């Protein structure tokens, strides 16, 4: 089908290509196919009554005749309603009528005598001709809908041209009003077509094109307004041309899909699994072919090619400036280990070949050794790469709004130099988002998710320079139109980044993301403590913002998990944990950060209660951990195949067990410290008539309780210290730990003495003097505990790095 020079729709019909593109045609023709097939399958048997007579066959013949008659009547109606295709439609109707008559005659003869094979063959040929003719008729009828859609496309194209060529504001608004109406009609028609198409790629292309039309309507108006008033401004022309191009490409995509163009489509270039994931799969597939020792001369280069492809991709991730040093070192070490393992094993195979060992069992053993060692090494490398990419995702998608906000503030100030500096930072940020998204996609086998990530990343990359142009326009004009244009491009950018973030999250392992976020929050807490000690307000603010951002990301990812699951106890627990984190923990943390910053910036600076700040920070960590545990609870509901997969994963991570135990011990240490701080604050509240403690005996009992907790804390801290390498931080940790038993012993002795005195007096009075020493000792104990927690975190980080280096 195409447009001739007069603009009339011309149908190009290939009678040999009956490609059914829509589900509607299949639904209409399916009953006829069933009837004909059933008729063909009438068994050759003697029927009760006259020999060879089939009553069921005659019923089916009548049904086929009736269906054929309905097709003919409907075809005539469509032909009369659509003059453009009346001739072709009536021709197709005649073919159906002729084929139907032949089918009726042949099937009647067959029904009268179903035992004659020649009549069965004759009816089969007639049935084939009838189905061919009906299919042709239905496809031609479907082209009526295609014609209507193509007409709408032409109207929208003309509307875009009118908007682009508008010479004044009045004409522009009139043309935009018409364009909006035409576009809405096209979007609705394309939506109906999308639902009917059988090809998934075509459906995706139509969905993408419709989304572009929806998003760019307002953008076309604001960009055109600025250009009409300032046609000489290069940035205004660039904005307008960009939007027009996007709309035209969307219209062309709908046109190609509608006409069944199987060439390059809107999204086909983004299809396929991640490149690095494919390389890992290729290597596994090569290993699974079980090459014999005598074949290694042939198989060796193939294995080496697969491995080099993996190492090249791994190097790109390792060399990223956002890769942590320990991750980078681990990736390089694993790459070298995998390469060395392959060379050693291939050399061993070649040695066996040189010795002319013709032993099938030996060859099989060598093959199994190759697979076992190589697959283990490649799994370790893949696991390190995945953790590194999750690091990137956690860090880079933490704050996606600040660069844009800075750009807009600079544009509103009118400072063009500041705008250019901010534009450079914004562009770098956009490129970083795209790179990290690409890294995430390259390691994923989720083809649909990878496709969405690639498409979204391309949209971000294309939109970025136009956002910068909008900012430059605002800096130059400072008009209402420029402000509106900037806001529209801002909304488009934020929406596209959210889409990219959701796409990346969909291909990122949620449990891995949660675990990485927990570790990063601990790092940020430690950095906040350092900032308070050094009086660095900017460092404190930056790390506190990171804690807030990471917590919000964890909450969003958890709620996404909720949306992907059926409502129930599992989802309810996640929602509850997120609610506590967002509405109780984080507001308290934000308030605490504000107080700390005000204390540090006042003149003269005030002392910040570091223990209280650390306690509030660890509440955030605890809140995030509660969310993580709620999400992890879904593992209990996995089926046997998932259990098998998890078992395999556990086996792969045997070398990481010690590090995991260290992390778990550190988490328990933090929880103990939090409980002890709560007891200490209750004791302190007693001295100011606050808190739950009402009598001196209550304080004494609290002192006993915090002393017992301190003893447990010290035992756990000792186990952690034993696993840490020698370092200055370990020495600090041991020094703080030495204070803990002393304070615990002091609390025990003092509380026993005070308890005896209180028992003699009845123990129901509130005597501050009798418990002041207990409160002060509890404060000293808590301070030693928090200092131990802080130093133990740094020492355990050194342990993790040492363990990784040792394993590598």
TrEMBL record:
Q: What is this protein called?
A: Catenin alpha
**Keyword Cytoplasm set for record:** yes
GO MF terms held by the record: actin filament binding; beta-catenin binding; cadherin binding
Compositional bias (Basic and acidic residues): 632-650
Localization per record: Cell junction; Cytoplasm
Region: Disordered, residue numbers: 632-661
A GO biological-process term: cell migration
Keywords (alphabetical) are: Cell adhesion, Cell junction, Cytoplasm
Give yes or no: UniProt keyword Metal-binding. Answer: no
- Principal place where this protein is found? other
Identify its protein family: Belongs to the vinculin/alpha-catenin family.
User: GO CC annotations?
Assistant: adherens junction; catenin complex; cytoplasm
- SUPFAM superfamilies, per this entry? alpha-catenin/vinculin-like
């Amino acid at each position: 089908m195409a447009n001739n020079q007069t603009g009339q729709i011309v149908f190009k019909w290939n009678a040999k290509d009956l490609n059914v593109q829509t589900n509607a045609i299949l639904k209409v023709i399916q009953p006829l196919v069933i009837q004909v097939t059933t008729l063909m399958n009438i068994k050759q048997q003697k029927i009760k009554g006259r020999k060879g007579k089939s009553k069921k066959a005659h019923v089916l013949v009548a049904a086929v005749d009736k269906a054929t008659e309905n097709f003919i009547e409907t075809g005539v109606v469509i032909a009369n309603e659509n003059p453009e295709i009346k001739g072709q439609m009536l021709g197709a109707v005649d073919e159906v009528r002729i084929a139907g008559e032949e089918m009726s005659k042949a099937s009647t003869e067959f029904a009268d005598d179903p035992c004659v094979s020649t009549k069965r063959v004759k009816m089969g040929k007639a049935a084939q001709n009838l189905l061919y003719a009906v299919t042709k008729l239905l496809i031609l009828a479907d082209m009526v809908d295609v014609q209507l859609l193509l007409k709408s496309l032409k109207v929208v194209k003309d509307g875009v041209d009118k908007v682009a060529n508008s010479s004044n504001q009045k004409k522009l608004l009139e043309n935009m009003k018409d364009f909006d109406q035409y576009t809405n009609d096209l979007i609705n028609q394309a939506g109906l077509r999308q639902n009917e198409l059988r090809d998934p790629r075509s459906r995706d292309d139509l969905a993408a094109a419709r989304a572009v039309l929806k998003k760019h309507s307002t953008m076309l108006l604001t960009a055109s307004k600025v250009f009409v008033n300032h046609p000489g401004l290069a940035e205004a022309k660039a904005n307008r041309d960009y939007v027009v191009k996007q709309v035209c490409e969307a219209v062309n995509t709908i046109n190609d899909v509608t006409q069944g163009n199987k060439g390059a489509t809107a999204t086909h270039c983004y299809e396929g699994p991640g490149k690095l994931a494919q390389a890992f799969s290729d290597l596994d597939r090569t290993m699974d072919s079980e090459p014999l020792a005598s074949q290694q001369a042939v198989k060796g280069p193939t294995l080496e090619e697969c491995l080099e492809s993996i190492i090249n991709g791994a190097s790109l991730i390792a060399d990223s400036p956002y890769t942590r040093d320990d991750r980078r070192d681990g990736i390089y070490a694993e790459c070298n280990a995998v390469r060395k393992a392959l060379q050693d094993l291939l050399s061993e195979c070649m040695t066996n070949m040189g010795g002319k060992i013709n032993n099938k069992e030996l060859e099989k053993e060598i093959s199994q050794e190759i697979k076992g060692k190589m697959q283990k090494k490649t799994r370790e490398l893949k696991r390190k790469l995945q953790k590194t990419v999750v690091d990137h995702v956690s860090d880079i998608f933490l704050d996606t709004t600040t660069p844009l906000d800075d750009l807009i503030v600079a544009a509103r100030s009118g400072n063009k130099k500041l705008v250019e500096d901010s534009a450079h930072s914004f562009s770098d940020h956009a490129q970083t988002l795209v790179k990290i998204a690409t890294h995430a996609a390259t390691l994923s086998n989720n083809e649909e998710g990878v496709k969405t990530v690639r498409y979204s990343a391309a949209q971000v990359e294309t939109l970025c320079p136009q956002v910068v142009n909008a900012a430059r326009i605002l800096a130059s004009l400072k008009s209402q139109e420029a402000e509106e244009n900037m806001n529209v491009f801002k909304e488009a950018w934020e929406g596209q980044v959210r889409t990219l973030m959701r796409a990346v999250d969909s291909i990122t392992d949620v449990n891995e993301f949660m675990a990485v976020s927990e570790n990063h929050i601990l790092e940020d807490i430690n950095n906040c403590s350092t900032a308070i000690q050094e009086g660095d307000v900017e460092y404190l603010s930056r790390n506190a913002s990171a804690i807030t951002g990471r917590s919000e990301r964890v909450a969003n990812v958890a709620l996404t998990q909720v949306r992907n699951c059926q409502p129930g106890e599992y989802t309810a627990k996640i929602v509850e944990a997120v609610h506590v984190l967002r509405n109780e923990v984080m507001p308290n943390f934000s308030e605490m950060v504000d107080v700390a910053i005000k204390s540090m910036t006042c003149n003269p600076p005030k002392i910040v209660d570091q223990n209280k700040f650390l306690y509030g920070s660890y509440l955030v960590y605890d809140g995030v951990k509660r969310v993580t545990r709620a999400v992890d609870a879904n593992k209990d509901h996995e089926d046997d195949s998932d259990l098998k997969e998890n078992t395999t994963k556990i086996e792969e991570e045997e070398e990481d067990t010690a590090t995991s135990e260290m992390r778990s011990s550190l988490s328990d240490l933090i929880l103990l410290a939090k409980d002890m701080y709560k007891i200490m604050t209750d004791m302190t509240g007693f001295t100011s008539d606050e808190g739950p403690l009402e009598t001196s005996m209550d304080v004494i009992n609290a002192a006993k309780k915090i002393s017992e907790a301190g003893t447990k804390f010290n035992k756990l801290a000792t186990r952690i210290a034993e696993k840490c390498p020698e370092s200055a931080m370990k020495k600090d940790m041991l020094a703080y730990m030495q204070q803990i038993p002393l304070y615990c012993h002091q609390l025990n002795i003092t509380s026993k003495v005070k308890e005896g005195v209180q028992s003699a007096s009845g123990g129901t009075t509130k005597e501050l003097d009798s418990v002041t020493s207990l409160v002060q000792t509890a404060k000293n104990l808590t301070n030693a505990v928090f200092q131990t927690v802080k130093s133990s975190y740094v020492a355990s980080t050194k342990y993790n790095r040492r363990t990784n280096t040792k394993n590598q």
